Amino acid sequence: MKLFNYVILKNKLMLDLHKCIAKRYCHFLILLLVFLIIPVFAFSKERNDTLKFVHLTDVHLILNPISYDSSFVQRRFGKSFPNAQPFVKFLNSHPMAKKTDFVVVTGDMIDFYEAESTEGGLMGNQIELFHKIMNYETNSVVYLVLGNHDIASYPKNRYHQNHANIAKLTWVKNLPVFHQGTYYSRIYNVGSTVYRLIFLDNAYLSVRTHKEQAAFIIDRPQLDWLQAQLDESSDDKEIIFMHIPLPTSDNQDEKKGNPSLSYDDYVNKTNTQDFLDVLKETNNASVQLIVAGHIHRNDLFDFNFSEDFSFKQIITGAFRDNIDNWRLFQLTESDIMISIPDSTGQTTKISLK
């Protein structure tokens, strides 16, 4: 509205200028017009010295549950299924969410794309219902990535992702954040530092490779796009968001990340290695961290492959399990600070490379 009024005022002054050539106040109008042509925000825009966002994941909403087979709903959730109210309330009224620039949800926004209905056969309207929530019940800026449940089908007593492509097209059609595709990036300037936020799609879950601890699939077109994103600038700092985390080594200490993790630990896990190759080949050590979900617990792991190739992976617990499962990220010119809402008040600080 301000821009609209500004344009109207400028156009009016241009008309008045033509009329005032022989009048004394002509010089005044010329000076005023010059100042208006210079964008107002050049004077008023404050330097953004901190970018704040909240990360949450694995919401697992089931919307309009009475339309689905009751035994399936009971089996999935017991007597209490996750409705949308806590999620919407968090976005609209949680003090921390309101103070941040945006919210990131790394997948499993809904529990399934389609499932067995009360009338038999698969019914899929969860994405459309989720769109209505995001469009009409909240005005928060929310970035999304797809999780395996967001494209999952649940016929009776089964699970598959055979309709994953249709599910993804439905997400693209309904959610504006996906209108350019299911993977995308955003750039933010924080002081003199440029952050490139990269949102990937690794929602497809291979059951076979999952048993080998490598349920991590990013196809070649997406890897080529990621390579182009990382190569676009040698100065920006990247944060990668995805649903399924980078699998840890078989020799990992479950309670503490292995600081001497070997790159060769992944040599037989093709999809994971292809992803790591892209990160490694950028040669600018610009990827600061990976932010993920999927495993329904809080975790932090240091990937130290070499002196020139290292990053952290941050995993947040499921919002479905506890509405206090979220993290606050604060990005500054020189570091990234990450905190969780627990009694310890512990903050992880990552100095930029």
From TrEMBL:
<dbReference type="InterPro" id="IPR029052">
    <property type="entry name" value="Metallo-depent_PP-like"/>
</dbReference>
<dbReference type="InterPro" id="IPR051918">
    <property type="entry name" value="STPP_CPPED1"/>
</dbReference>
<feature type="domain" description="Calcineurin-like phosphoesterase">
    <location>
        <begin position="51"/>
        <end position="297"/>
    </location>
</feature>
<protein>
    <submittedName>
        <fullName>Enterobacter aerogenes GpdQ</fullName>
    </submittedName>
</protein>
<dbReference type="GO" id="GO:0016787">
    <property type="term" value="F:hydrolase activity"/>
</dbReference>
<dbReference type="Pfam" id="PF00149">
    <property type="entry name" value="Metallophos"/>
</dbReference>
<dbReference type="InterPro" id="IPR004843">
    <property type="entry name" value="Calcineurin-like_PHP"/>
</dbReference>
